[in-house]
Write a structure and sequence with these properties.
With 341 residues, the protein is of the alpha/beta class. The chain contains 11 helices and 10 strands. Helix 5 runs parallel beside helix 7 (217-232) and helix 8 packs parallel to helix 9. The chain binds 5'-O-[(R)-(carboxyoxy)(hydroxy)phosphoryl]adenosine and zinc ion. Zinc ion is lined by residues 116, 120, 141, 274-275, 307.
Length: 341
């Protein structure tokens, strides 16, 4: 079956066509076009929702037809259309949702509203054809930091999450204060290798106790205070040492909570997904943890970690197999659970 996925929840407009047949073991990406708006938002230091919506409107149609063309099929050949319906920026989501409704209706194709978080996890199915639930999933992105027990392709339970900022926000904020352009997560990741370990220390974002929760506000404030202290006393800010301590403390906290989650659940497989899953420190540290614990570790290639249509199409396909169908009354929602805004 050919599946079209459309993504417009934040600052990437993307469309992808997959060929999927779970019974025959076929999970193939035929096209995955991503139009990033990063350059547009960089001058403001973050995503401007109104500008994001307008840029999606301009791009969504041509990106979709390019995805179909590259896949060598027409809209009528599609078996299902999946579109990110929640969570995200409401105006941005509405662009993809309304475009998909029109496309599906005009061509008589079933439509499925996709949960963006499930879509990040579904990217791993495309990377690893043998991967199937159950497994533990860590979703780390600009908007989320959560640990899930994934019980079936389309079903998961949240075991823990952040109580305040998301991990991606925490990376981007400090990167910005250190002078890196938005979104600075990847630049901070690289700079951390140039710093000396043990020069600075920051409080751990892993909450104490059995709960699988995080809080990033403390480490963010501590890093900001440290940077301000150097600036106010006229000293040169040791950017690399700050990046090193910051990234290492966050990585250690994630490893701690994932170790705890693996122990508590007894799961034998871990999936890491979301934009921040491109972080090389996290990839290496969780890879080592899983190796030591004899747990299978799955993490998509960096291009499939950030927002993209292929992950949405994959999640849409499994939702379709589970019987989900959306009508022309499908609405977008900014909320994590898709509830009306
Ligand atoms: O999943 P995503 O593309 O969008 C959301 O759904 O939020 O994630 C974007 C986030 C940004 O915060 C970006 O800085 C971060 O992913 N990111 C990274 C790296 N690459 C992207 N954070 C840390 N290290 C990286 N290598
Ligand atoms: Zn995302």
């Amino acid at each position: 079956m050919f599946v079209l996925g459309i993504e417009s929840s934040c600052d990437e407009t993307s469309a992808s066509v997959l060929e999927m047949d779970e019974k025959a073991g076929v999970r193939r990406i035929l096209s995955n076009i991503v139009a990033s708006q990063i350059d547009v938002h960089a001058m403001y230091g973050g995503v401007v929702p109104e500008i994001a919506s307008r840029a999606h409107v301009e791009a969504v149609s041509s990106i979709t037809y390019r995805a179909l063309e590259e896949a060598g099929i027409g809209a009528k050949d599609l078996g299902v259309v999946g579109v990110t319906a929640y969570p995200g920026l409401i105006g941005a989501l509405l662009v993809g949702v309304n475009f998909s409704k029109a496309l599906a209706y005009a061509n008589g194709i079933p439509l499925v509203g996709v949960n963006h978080i499930k879509a990040h996890i579904a990217a791993a199915y495309l990377e690893y054809p043998e991967l199937r639930p159950p497994f533990l999933a860590l979703v780390v992105s600009g908007g989320h930091t959560s640990i899930y027990s994934v019980d079936r392709f389309n079903e998961m339970t949240e075991l823990g999450s952040t109580r305040d900022d998301a991990i991606g926000e925490a990376f981007d904020k400090i990167a910005r204060v250190l002078g890196m352009p938005y979104p600075g997560g990847a630049a901070l990741d690289r700079l951390a290798y140039e710093g000396k370990e043990g020069v600075l220390t920051f409080p751990s974002p892993a909450l104490a106790g059995d709960a699988l929760d995080f809080s990033f506000s403390g480490i963010k404030t501590a890093a900001l205070n440290t940077i301000n202290r150097f600036v106010q006393t006229g000293q040169e800010t040791p950017k690399a040492d700050i990046a090193c301590a910051y990234v290492k403390t966050i990585t250690d906290a994630v490893v701690k909570k994932i170790r705890q989650a693996l122990n508590q659940t007894g799961q034998k497989s871990l999936v890491m997904a979301g934009g921040v899953a491109a972080n090389t420190h996290l990839r290496e540290a969780l890879g080592t943890l899983c190796k030591n614990k004899k747990v299978n570790f799955y993490v998509p290639r960096p291009q499939l970690c950030g927002d993209n249509g292929a992950m949405v199409a994959a999640a849409g396909y499994y939702a379709y197999l589970a019987g989900e169908r959306a009508g022309t009354d499908l609405n977008a929602s900014a909320q994590d659970d898709g509830s009306p805004d």
